[in-house]
Amino acid sequence: MADRPLTQLDKPDVLAGLFAVWDSLDALLGGLSESDWQAASPLPGWDVKAVVSHIIGTESFLLGIGAPEADIDVSTLEHVRNPIGVMNESWVIHLGGESGTSLLERFREVTAKRRKALESMPEADWNAATTTPAGPDTYGRFMRIRTFDCWMHEQDIRQALQQPSSDEELGGQAGELSLDEMSTSMGFVVGKLAKAPAGSRVLFELTGPLARTIRVSVDGRAQVVEDFGGQQPTATIRLDGLQFTRLAGGRPMSSARSQDVELGGDEDLAGQIVKRLNFVI
To answer: Which chain regions cross the lipid bilayer (predicted)?
Structure first.
């Protein structure tokens, strides 16, 4: 941990995003019929009910509630690839027999408890080192990852129901925090996954409500930078911000937004990066 400083994040800022996505999910799920809950999501083997069960399971874990025992060996399922996947699937199976209405009540109950716990958490604990899905970092970083995870799953559910987010909804705090979180992995994507050569300067231009610019410079190792020091990018990738999040999450693109991906400069490298964008567990 010595070579990587801990990520200090503003607690009210992150909690505003996390609570906003929970509110958005609550509103979305509140209008569903039982058949809607069984709509297939873009995630293999999971319907809407399974996605919500996963969110409930993770927040339960963060309240100190252990994963239920499944009556099958979930590690043998094709879409379960790691210990986190085993925990997720245990909750999905455990809650699979519940009605949508009952599941929504569980979601409301667990997120209400988590809100109270997070709001009363002292700043020292928020900024303290802990184990996160991205390695050792602050609890605050973990909660930004939770915001990103819940927001991604909201988009999964919306895709399943063919109820895409409006531009205004996409431009909210949760989407911004999710992109903040995803941006931190672009050095890994460009350097490690796409193996961009030394001297590469890669520019991601995201358009639409989630518009932003992400720059990655490969100098020794690939890392996200504020600017290229007056130099031009060697490769550019331009696409809609939501579609960027779908590709980075290993999901199919949304049919609700432009699916154009424009490559510039070293197009072979840019294309290689797009192919390797999926970094999410």
So the answer is: none
